[in-house]
Amino acid sequence: MTRIAVIGGGRIGEALISGLLKAGRAARDLVVAESFPARAAELAEQYAIRVTTVADAAEGADVVVIAVKPGDVDPVVAQLAAGDLDGEREQLIVTLAAGLPTWRYENKLPAGVPVVRVMPNTPMLVGEGVSAIAAGRFAKAEHLETVRELLGSVGKVVTVSEAQIDAVTAVSGSGPAYFFLVAEAMVDAGVSLGLTRATASELVVQTMVGSAAMLAESGESATELRAAVTSPGGTTAAAVRELERGGLRTAFYDALTAAKVKSAALGAPTEKAGVSAE
Ligand SMILES: NC(=O)C1=CN([C@@H]2O[C@H](COP(=O)(O)OP(=O)(O)OC[C@H]3O[C@@H](n4cnc5c(N)ncnc54)[C@H](O)[C@@H]3O)[C@@H](O)[C@H]2O)C=CC1
Ligand SMILES: O=C(O)[C@@H]1CCC=N1
Question: Comparing C-alpha atoms, which of 186, 206, 207 is closest to residue 197?
Fold first, then answer.
């Protein structure tokens, strides 16, 4: 059984822990290091898992998952490097932090320690995540397989080159926020058209769920599915015209480009420690 230590029990750390437990992983095989005491107590109570220090969590773990903000990664890696982590034990480091390249970890860890960089997203909380994984310099096929199995229990997994991870971050890492923003805007618009907030929310959420299921299961593209809803001279055409007039496509292009640029900047040596992703 793989023993997993999660360093950082924040939003993504919790999504992973919760998703793994729901997928049937035993609580005794999970340990969390969380430095904020109130948060540590909350996680211990809610998930009945051991919450401890970084050194203690890493000790005895087969896989150490780093889930702190990019600006908090360096001290965590320094603590791991000071522990009895070494290539011989085949302890695997998996980092979920946006922006930071694997060499930033490898340079500080004992030579040979494998590092796999992952960009997950929060829907793994409900088993519907998608993670892109990329091997660092010392990570072999078997390490990628371990990570694929781990993240595969909470969603889909794609393997990419590390050079593509900033683009992945822009598309799927941050992606849930774009859909939540669209949902928020649609609910507000529904309310302005006279619906109650509860009714507008129910309509919007189920429209998203149904549309996502069609995208995933119908075998048809987004373009084909949208065309099928758009009757000639009808209501959808009138709405889509307004969305195009509002610059929706350009807004998405610019937004994803900004996210990719920001991801690359987080890993650049000029980015100040502490200036990190929310
Ligand atoms: N939130 C998201 O949707 C995604 C986040 N990520 C990445 O995951 C990482 C964490 O992001 P969030 O969970 O959103 O941040 P967060 O701020 O919610 O969680 C980070 C947690 O780490 C804890 N922490 C900080 N230093 C620590 C240390 N030395 N030892 C133990 N615990 C420590 C903090 O107290 C906090 O609870 C970031 O690097 C981010 O780029 C990646 C994909 C998606
Ligand atoms: O906003 C962020 O920086 C993190 C990485 C991807 C999603 N959340």
Answer: 186
Q: What is the ipTM of this complex?
A: 0.99
Please check the confidence at residue 271 and state whether its pLDDT lies above 60: no
Q: Is 242 in the pocket of ligand 2 (CB under 6 A)?
A: no
| Amino acid at residue number 182 | V
Ligand 1 pocket residue status of 12, Cβ below 6 Å: yes
Q: What contacts 17, CB < 8 A, 6 or more positions away?
A: 6, 9, 30, 32, 43, 47, 49
175 within ligand 1 shell (Cβ under 6 A): no
Domains and CATH numbers, the chain: 4-168 (3.40.50.720), 175-261 (1.10.3730.10)
173 Cα: distance to centroid of ligand 2 (angstroms) = 6
Three-state SS sequence of 128-185: CEEEEEEECCCCCHHHHHHHHHHHHCCEEEEECCHHHHHHHHHHHHCHHHHHHHHHHH
Distance of CA 111 to the CA centre of its chain: 28
Ligand 1 atom nearest residue 177's Cα: 3
State mean pLDDT over 134-142.
97
For 205-224, how does the pLDDT look when each residue is reduced to its tens digit (9 = 90+)? 999 999 999 999 999 999 99
